[in-house]
Write a structure and sequence with these properties.
The chain has about 375 residues and is α+β, with helices and mostly antiparallel strands. The protein is about 30% helix and about 30% strand. α2 runs parallel beside α3 and α4 packs across α5 (about 100-105). Bound molecules: adenosine monophosphate.
């Protein structure tokens, strides 16, 4: 099959690497000529709103998927005129807008923190009354990796936060006093087959994923998370991988956000699960039988942010695997990761600490 991918970042690159092994062909569309994806497959050059290039991509592919969350709905619709487009456009559009995302969680009875929509400055006061402090003000669109959000601790800081974020449509959320953050990755194919990966525990640094540990091994939470993700998969008649991030507060899951694509917190599945999230995404969109999502050991994944640690030293750690995305280093930029897979859970903490020391302090 010839698979088109809009966006040729590391997610697209890892999708292509998974599919090339099975004889699929890939064609990217990206704004940069030297993207991580362009290093492993041909890439068309163009913006994500470039109607001509979107149509050119679609005409040359059996199906098109994406690795960027901010692909405009109109662009996806252009592609869908010529060929298959998965995951569904509705899922893409919902995840792009924090308000529609929260409303959908509400409709499907998936719990979240208290939140209010803020359309104009005049809505701020009422939102604050409803949500309380501390709170987090977030732009409805284009927020990722901690961007587009401001933590608010005092009432007098709210107006300034609103200005800082550009005085547009936002949501105000209650701050979740979470014990931990976790994510669940589910996958569905159009025939209706669904599978879920084990829950992953995620530790963030300044809003960016620092490291993940999987499986979480808490059967109550696993069942609950699967039931929430299943509702979303069925709601959209989904195809491919869907990732949902949760806060764990007093043993309960509160959904934070969803991503209609493969996810950084699922990178450990490349070596640590029977089938990787990348392979299962492709199987899902191609309506092939889905692969086993079970963990084959105990895994930890650490992101390389802004710099690559010495490869040989990382690989000296038993069970480690090194990934570099072919990106130029810049502060905070995700340019690679390493995963450690251990047969024994008790071996993981020391090896993870060693890896984290090699990656260096987060600053
Ligand atoms: P997001 O862009 O919504 O995924 O937020 C990035 C990170 O900011 C999350 O993974 C949390 O660590 C933190 N965060 C976001 N919203 C909240 C919240 N309502 N309460 C506590 N922490 C939050």
């Amino acid at each position: 099959m010839k698979i088109g991918i809009v966006g040729a970042g590391q997610l697209g690159r890892m999708l292509a690497l998974a599919g090339l092994a099975q004889g699929d062909e890939f064609l990217f569309l990206d704004t940069a000529a030297d993207s991580p994806g362009a290093q492993v497959a041909t890439s068309l050059l163009g913006g994500f709103d470039d109607a001509e290039q979107l149509a050119a991509l679609a005409k040359r592919c059996d199906i098109v998927t994406f690795d960027v969350e901010n692909l405009p709905r109109e662009s996806a619709e252009i592609i869908a005129r010529y060929t298959g487009f998965q995951p569904p456009i509705d899922a893409l559009a919902t995840a792009q807008d924090r308000l529609s995302e929260k409303r959908l969680f509400e409709t499907l009875e998936i719990p979240t923190v208290a939140w209010r929509s803020v359309e104009r400055a005049e809505d701020l006061h009422e939102a604050l009354e409803a949500v309380g402090l501390p709170a987090v003000l977030k732009t409805r669109r284009l927020g990722y990796d901690g961007r587009g959000q401001v933590f608010v601790r005092r009432p007098q800081d709210l107006a300034e936060a609103w200005q800082t974020l550009g005085a547009g449509p936002m949501i105000l959320e209650a701050f979740a006093p979470f014990d931990e953050e976790v994510s669940l990755i589910g996958v569905r194919n159009p025939s209706g087959q669904c599978r879920h990966y084990p829950l992953t525990r995620n530790v963030h640094w300044q809003g960016v994923l620092d490291y993940s540990i999987a499986p979480l091994e808490r059967s109550g939470l696993q069942k609950q998370a699967e039931s929430y993700v299943q509702r979303l998969l069925e709601h959209f008649s989904y195809a491919g991988v869907l990732s949902v991030e949760f806060f764990v507060v007093n043993g309960r899951l509160l959904a934070n956000e969803m991503a209609p694509r493969v996810h950084n917190s699922g990178h450990w599945t490349i070596e640590g699960a029977a089938t990787s999230q990348f392979e299962n995404h492709l199987r899902g969109i191609l309506d092939l039988p889905l692969g086993d999502t079970r963990a084959t050991g105990h895994s930890a994944m650490v992101n390389f942010l802004g710099a690559l640690p010495p490869r040989a030293e990382v690989l000296e750690i038993e069970g480690s695997h090194y990934h570099a995305y072919g990106k130029a280093p810049r502060p905070r930029r995700k340019i690679g990761h390493a995963t450690i897979v251990c047969a024994q859970r008790s071996d993981l903490p020391a090896r993870l600490e060693r890896l984290r020391r090699l990656v260096g302090p987060r600053e």
